Amino acid sequence: MERRRPFSFAKSLMFSFRLLAADAHTAARRGVFTTPRGDVQTPAFMPVGTQGTVKGLTMDMVRATGAEMILGNTYHLALRPGAEVVQKLGGLHRFSGWDGPILTDSGGFQLFSLAQMTRISEEGAVFRSHIDGSIFELSPERAIEIQEQLGSDVAMVLDHVVALPNEDAIVRDACERTVRWAARCRAAARRPEQAQFAIVQGGLNPELRAWCAAQLAELQFPGYAIGGLSVGELPEDMYRVLDGACPHLPQNAPRYLMGVGRPEDILEAIRRGVDLFDCVMPTRNGRNALAFTDRGPVRMRNLKHATDDRPLEEQCPCPACGRSRGYLRHLFMAGEMLGPTLLSAHNLTYYQRLVTGARDAIANGRFDEYHREKQHGWESGDA
Ligand SMILES: [Zn+2]
């Protein structure tokens, strides 16, 4: 195999993370992540653009929600249309029409959740595509090569995700392999304009998470993710994992909690020092007629909205909130495609307002108060 010459991320001036404020009472941080395609104010929420599209929205609409960075899925794009096709069409930014920063995941989570007959060895994974059953191989080196072809700004290392809860020995083995694979990904990098984030694994064991975080921190990545969560574990278990991992991650690098989650999980994670989030919840729930609000979730198909002239939320600037609840309900009842589009736009705007509020609260030293206000509103359930 041809050896590529690795370069030092630490010496790369294209990416940086600057802490602007730290909350006095919690571990919450306010920062800015600088990339070649622009700054990302943190804590930040990244809408999920699985197939090179944030489902149901144009990129202009995604931008209008307040999003600064989006996510693309390596597994999906590599299977269809193929990384070479995306590369031929100018890379993921030109292909999708999103000119801001893009983070691509490595496919580790989809190997675990979607692919069929996945076989993992030290070399990598062999699996069958969930689309047409064809056989694919994904090694740490190949995962980076694909993400370089896609041209994302941040690439994720390939990690070994296992089901939870699981036997200690299995979780530990996958965690140790994840560290070895992270080192291989780092050595395979050849594009200075693409940063790599490592992924902390270790199941629900806070000590193993702490060990994994410390091992990866020694490799000096420009950012770190906490992965393998949001797979059905209790919220308290997830918070314990964050308590285990976050203190062992470098202060001067962004921390990204992958695939999480509900608005309450996001604030609990910010509280513990997490900076970046992604989740399909706002768009998936939007498509299914569920809206997030400060007074709890609203089920848009409910008969009680039929003649309701009020907007979903008075203070929300999104296009859905320019119309009445009665109109939004009508769109869903009539099976109109504008319904899912408008509610996806509202939910993404809601998540952006949530993290914007958190950023302001941290800067003003009142994150704890902000967190309690939000929690109180959600629990009221009178939306
Ligand atoms: Zn709205």
Regions with little confidence, pLDDT below 50 for 5+ residues: none
* Annotation field: number of helices: 14
Shape: globular
* Sheet having the most strands: 9 strands, parallel
Distance between the termini: 59 Å
Please describe what this structure looks like.
By secondary structure, the protein is α/β, with parallel strands linked by helices. It has 14 helices and 17 strands. It has a 9-stranded parallel beta sheet with strand order 4-15-14-13-12-11-7-6-5. Strands 1-2-3 form a 3-stranded antiparallel beta sheet. Strand 2 and strand 3 form a beta hairpin. Helix 10 runs antiparallel to helix 14. The chain is globular. Bound molecules: zinc ion. The site of zinc ion has 8 residues, from helix 13.
Spell out the blueprint of helices and strands.
Elements: E1 16-22, E2 29-35, E3 38-42, E4 44-46, E5 48-49, H1 59-64, E6 70-73, H2 74-79, H3 83-88, H4 91-96, E7 102-105, H5 108-113, E8 116-120, E9 125-128, E10 135-138, H6 140-150, E11 154-156, H7 168-188, E12 195-200, H8 206-218, E13 223-226, H9 235-245, E14 255-257, H10 263-271, E15 276-278, H11 281-287, E16 290-291, E17 298-299, H12 325-333, H13 338-363, H14 367-380
Helix pairs in contact: 6-7, 7-8, 8-9, 10-13, 10-14, 11-13, 12-13, 13-14
Bound molecules: zinc ion.
Zinc ion binds at residues 312-313, 316, 318, 320-321, 346, 349.
